[in-house]
Amino acid sequence: MRAEHHVATFGADGGELVVGGVPLRRLADRVGSTPFFAYDRSLLDRRLDELRAALPGRLQLGYAVKANPMPAVVQHVARRVDWLDVASAHEMQVALDTGTATARVSFAGPGKTTTELVQAVAAGVLVEVESVGELDRLVLAGERVGVRPRAALRVNPDFAVRGSGMRMGGGPQQFGIDAEEVPGVLSDAADRDVDLLGFHVFAGSQNLSADLLVTAHTHTVELLLRLADKATQPVTYLNLGGGIGIPYFEKDEPVDLARVGAHLADLLSAEVAPALPDADVVLELGRYVVGECGVYVSRVVDVKRSRGQRYVVVDGGLHHHLAATGNFGQVIRRNYPLVVGDRLDPGAREPAHVVGCLCTPLDLLGSDVELPEVEVDDLVVVFQSGAYGATASPADFLGHPPAREVLV
């Protein structure tokens, strides 16, 4: 999507972007320094309202805290969703601090330490088990604290999801127990002191195709119901994963959420309800919930020309927003939507490279971006920055100050 769409979404006043109802320069003064991430709570609420309207009523909504674990954001989202999914002891503490019932917090991710398992069991959190070895350690953790662990098996499916920005299932994976091994694990666990409530499948992320998501959800439900037939106790939890993406680049189109929701409604009524009428069925979303409500704001510190090319140098960069710079050059780099947030009025524009303050050519926020005349102290805004920003970036690289975060 073009930057103009995102400007319209947030709003503008007098040629200046507005975030959370606050003009950008006034917001920057409130924050006190740049760079910073700002998250618009009204846009966050709008996205959650859209999800509730499009998804079937029986489907429960989970928020993947890893997408944006800022405590204020998690506190706000927790009031509007049914589950919080965490991937570390720190995220678990952030989730529990919201007052969310421990039975509605799930803990996924490979490599959980024994200490983390003990903490999760003691708190009553649902542990999504990634391997047979982890299951063994979970049972021992339960014996250690005198609490029967609540668990679900994370399943590495026997299919892959095309179109996903990151594949997390199918073939060999560090995530989950291979689907063909799950019946044996269920049989072995029948006599162990663990409460196996159900299953979790997360096959891929950042998918913009409704057709591919419909196919993935169909295969996921088929697999989960097959496995539920092998369970040795009633299945009361099915996590379908997430995977719904957001449009980062100019030619990207948003997913047809209505179609995805209608298909999920059909699956739940025709397939899940007859087989497992009492099961909690969860769709776990992170990026789709929070990604489009955030901006990254940095300040221009220099404007220069080099052999005919214009360079706009800002005080931020890949140490705060790795994804926007292309993940250390490991992907084909494309520009996130970007504007000079205090110079939105139409006028003459020319190409510029927006670069950060780090000593590497990889520190590139925008390449050949059409920008107006830019001056020192102007504010550059990168959209689609609400997810996988500050906490997914190498903040200590070169020792610059961290980016602040604010929920407006």
UniProtKB/TrEMBL annotation:
Give start and end of each Orn/DAP/Arg decarboxylase 2 N-terminal domain.
Answer: 44-290
Q: Which InterPro entries match?
A: Ala_racemase/Decarboxylase_C, DCO2ase_PEP1, De-COase2_CS, De-COase2_N, Orn/DAP/Arg_de-COase, PLP-binding_barrel
For whether the record's keyword set contains rRNA processing, the answer is no
Keywords carried by this UniProt record: Pyridoxal phosphate
Q: Which cofactor does it need?
A: pyridoxal 5'-phosphate
Q: Tell me where on the tree of life, at the top rank, the source sits.
A: Bacteria
So which residues are the signal peptide here? none
NCBIfam families membership: dCO2ase_PEP1
UniProt protein name = Pyridoxal-dependent decarboxylase, exosortase A system-associated
Q: Record the organism.
A: Nocardioides baculatus
